[in-house]
Structures are given as C-alpha cells and as structure tokens.
User: Fold this.
Amino acid sequence: MILVAGSANLDFVVRAHHIPSPGETVLGRDFKTFPGGKGANQAVASARAGAAPTHMLVGLGDDAFAVPLEASLKGAGVQLHTIRTPDHPTGTAFICVSDDAENAITVAPGANAQLRPEHLPSLQGFTHLLLQLETPMETVTAYATAARAQGVTVVLNAAPAQSLPAELLAHTDVLVVNEGELATVSGHTGSIAECLARINVPTMVVTLGHHGSCARQHGAFTLQGAYPITPVDTTGAGDTFCGSLVAALSQGKTLPDALQFASAASAIACTRWGAQSSIPEAAEVTAFIAQHPKTSPEAEQALRAFCGLT
Assistant:
C-alpha cells in the first residue's frame, strides 16, 4: 500500500495569452475550478496507476471547497485519512495558464498548514510514503523519520523549492525534483550531474521538462527521453510523474521501467486541462508507451550532454 501525506487545494484556473508580469493586468478567457494540490494530485496519479491501494492523509476545512476535493479523491479510489480544521479554510491555488501551456501558481495553504506530526496514521501494511512540501517542514520531517524507522520507503517530492534540513534528507530514500528544485536543494548551479553529486540520497530523480528525466541510483545514471506531445496545460504534470513513479516502484518495476511509465503518464496529462482531471488510467499509459518508440541513441546522447554526463 502507498500512503500520500500532503496537500489538497481547489484550483482556480484562468487561461490567458501570457502570464502577467509584476504590475501587469492581463485579460483572461476561460475560467474553471479543478481539484488540485500536490499531495492530492499525486494520490490520484498513484491510484489511477492501479499498482497498489493508495491512501491519503489530508487536511481539509469545513467548507464548500472541500467537497469537490473529497469527491475527486474518492472517485479515483483513494482512501482518505482526513484531518478536519473548522477554523482554517480548505487550501486554494490561483493559476494562470498561458497559450504556450506554461503556468504561474499562487497557493493559499489553509488547512494544509495544520497537519501535525501526531496526525500520521499507523504505517502498518504500507510499503511507500510519498511526501511534498506544501505542508509544514517539521511535519514532513517527522513523517519521514517515523516511516524510515518502520521500514517504509520514503519518497519526497521537494516542491515547492526550498532548502531541506539534513534530518529530512537523511530519512529520504527517493528524492524527486525538477531542475530549479535541484539547484535549490543542492545549493549549486552547475550541471545536473554536478548538482546530483552534492546530495546524499540513495535514489535521485530529476524531471527536465521537454528534455525528459534523469535519475541517479547508488551512483549509476538512468536517462528517460521526453515523449513528443503538443502540450495544452502543464499544471499537475510533475505530480502525475511523482504519483505514477511511486506506484510503479511499489509494483516492483525497475527504475528505468518506472521512469518510462511516469514519463508517459505525465506526457498524457500535459495534453489535457486541469490537474487531477488530466491524470490518465494505467491502461492509457500502457497503450501510449506501446505506440511510441523508445528514445533514439542520438536523442539519448543529447540528453546525456544536457545533464553533463558526457
């Protein structure tokens, strides 16, 4: 079983020609609300991957915004461990998506900030604990420490980007970051390979957008090229990757196979609107992989060069 402990937000999404600069007002077009939040998105991705039962520890307010979040999670088959906070609203996120599918996000944590170390449920029967950083750092660290002590594999998505305490890194088995987060965690601005060398975690995975992804496990590198798609909305793509990756690893897949599955799932998500609404089912991902050839030697060499591995 997989336990995701993290955030749930109701996303308020507006589409515009471009993302506003500081002080700029932009006229948007389409507006919709979607269930979101890094933790909830990753829980849905894990559940839809179908590899193992997925549970989620989540903080929600006693308000209308919590209703669609609970419905989406339960609809995906996620079993909830809800901490209700009547004095704090459900988390929200305000997202602007540009015509080239980039996004800018502002999060109001609300009830997410009320998760405490004592809220962690029993970990008996769980194989993996998936964490993010939209909940308090001391809580995330306490959860990781407790999980490691009980033999549960700890997977941390270090997003939003911030420096990590040594205690949290010491109790992390798999660290997943994007390129910017890697620079923040490593405190270095060199190549991908140089930054990875500065972080002492058994398995590191770096998502690199349209370049693909790069992983280092016990000193050995694995590369996964990006799938060719025309993106519509990249919101939730990284979360889809994380949830799908953990689901694949929990099923016993090798790291290269898990990277391939996660990359395909996130590619599909980029072709659809919204966060949880864009996450594919396992059968869709398997079919997508079958329809797309593996990375060519030339493309892999280009990815190696991009990561500083040549």
Remarks:
- Residues 127 and 152 are 5 Å apart (CA to CA).
- Residues 255-269 form the longest helix (15 residues).
